[in-house]
Amino acid sequence: MDNFMFFLKEGLFHVLDWNAYDHVLFLIALVVVYDFKNWKKILWLITLFTIGHTLSLILAAYKIVSISHNWIEFLIPVTILITALVNIFFAKNASKLAKTNTNLFFALFFGLIHGLGFSGYFKILIGSSTQKLIPLLEFALGIELAQLIVVFAVLIIGLIFQTVFRFPKRDWILIISSIVIGLVLPILKAAIFW
């Protein structure tokens, strides 16, 4: 039980760490186009992201895939930027964007990239242990819980701004996506390695 709680907490605080806020930025960009009535789609988004994330962690933990850390650190902010830009370009048709499956693809594919970013950290956590799969799944469960917390917070804040302060959905998407872009551009600039 101690190992379970350890890896669960590591996954949870891996996402909720203020020093690694890129994960939160991606989640914000991913779900800002949704509201509570889209809860099934949101659950699929989060789960697909976790599946992609976990799959790449498994591939890296078992040394099946190895990609340069520099490329991963560059691609993570690129994924955030792309997601936020798609939101801005389609903000006028937010309900149509929420109904498409584009974000499902983003969640899965970008989850693969983000997972590779954490593979080094995960390898340190498990050390030389031959048992990698169970800790990895426990870590993934922590990530899933943390993502649900972030998504719930984004949806609550969106609900408040759109109902209490009467922000139109389009404006909400434009403002939040623009803030995400403003925060991710310095990360992207710092990650350029060539």
Round the Cα radius of gyration to an integer and report it.
17 Å
H/E order of the elements? HHHHHHHH
- The total number of structural domains is 1
Ranges where pLDDT stays below 50 over 5 or more residues in a row are none
Helices, by number, come to 8
Question: How many beta-strand runs?
Answer: 0
Shape call? globular
**Proportion of β residues?**
under 5%
Structural class: mainly alpha
Biggest sheet, in brief? Answer: none
CA-CA gap between termini: 45 Å
- Report helical residue fraction: over 70%
Average pLDDT, all residues: 89
Q: Would you write up a description of this structure?
A:
With 194 residues, the chain is an all-alpha fold. It has one domain (2-191). It is 79% helix and 0% strand. It is built from eight helices and no strands. Helix 3 (39-61) packs across helix 6 and helix 3 (39-61) runs antiparallel to helix 7. It is globular.
Describe this structure in a few short sentences.
The protein has 194 residues and is an all-alpha fold. Helix content is 79%, strand content 0%.
